[in-house]
Design brief:
With 274 residues, the chain is an alpha/beta fold. 37% of the residues lie in helices and 17% in strands.
């Protein structure tokens, strides 16, 4: 990046506050591109193979001053998509990004296979085990190959992660036309069922009660073949009857969803049904 003579640049002659407002409008457009596309055909959303983060950060290359003014803003308004299965978020980010820059990232997507699902158990309370990463959206895209995903093997570990996870407002799981034993919707239903089962157990069947750190609300999109969980504050500890009355609508929604799921005869797909 080369320095620009302020006397020849109307933009750089503006006050910093105005330059920041202009850059905010420029990078707002990035939020319309999340790295996923739909071909209007069976299979739902797909990972966009042509999506690149660098394309959406190009205005920062104009000069050093605009980079200084706008790089935190640009990182907050850009979807970072990692398709390399061997990419280590903690390692690469600490090597190439400053702490304040990492704190600016709000949208992160990564492609996952079984290794990534196993690694979720090691995250602890924060995404990727990084306390300075504060995400509005975390998207997990299933790796598309000729092999099946046995996502039911990870139902229990995902539920335990969700109970304690912080610094993530929304998590999405996207099928990406990958092969899933038992179907993505079946896994979603079992995941939701176990969330409620574990929550009840931790509140009323252990002493002292262990209330979740984060409660989640959820939804499934049949057409796009994805589901999401949005973070909410932990539910208050109330008597069991009041709790069951409050959870009853969620149980009814789950019952209806289960009745509409696809059936797969493979016994491994039912390994963690609850």
């Amino acid at each position: 990046m080369n320095p620009v003579n302020n006397s020849k640049s109307p933009l750089l002659s503006l006050p910093a506050e105005l330059r920041t407002q202009i850059l905010s409008h420029v990078f707002d457009e990035n939020l319309n591109h999340n790295g996923l596309i739909s071909y209007d055909c069976p299979g739902g959303l797909y990972l966009d193979d042509e999506y690149t983060v660098s394309t959406h950060l190009q205005p920062l290359l104009v000069c050093r001053q605009l980079y200084a003014d706008g790089h935190h803003l640009a990182f907050a308004k850009t979807y970072f998509v990692m398709t390399n299965l061997f990419f280590s978020v903690p390692e690469r980010s600490s090597r190439f990004l400053r702490k304040k820059t990492i704190e600016s990232i709000r949208h992160l997507t990564f492609v996952a296979d079984a290794r990534h699902f196993r690694a979720l158990e090691e995250w602890g309370m924060y995404p990727f085990g990084m306390p300075n990463l504060q995400l509005e959206t975390l998207t997990i895209v299933l790796y598309r190959s000729t092999f099946y995903h046995y996502v039911f093997d990870f139902t229990a570990s995902v539920v335990q992660l969700l109970r304690n996870l912080r610094n993530v407002k929304r998590i999405e799981f996207v099928r990406n036309a990958a092969l899933v034993k038992g179907s993505l919707k079946t896994w979603y239903n079992r995941l939701v069922g176990l969330i409620m089962k574990v929550d009840h157990h931790e509140r009323y069947e252990v002493s002292p009660p262990r209330v979740e750190g984060t409660w989640w609300v959820w939804g499934f999109d049949e057409v796009e073949q994805r589901f999401w969980l949005e973070a909410r504050e932990a539910k208050a500890l109330v008597d069991e009857e009041t709790y069951l009355q409050g959870i009853l609508p969620l149980m009814e929604e789950l019952r209806v969803s289960v009745e509409g799921e696809e059936w797969n005869p493979d016994p491994r797909s039912r390994r963690h049904y609850y």
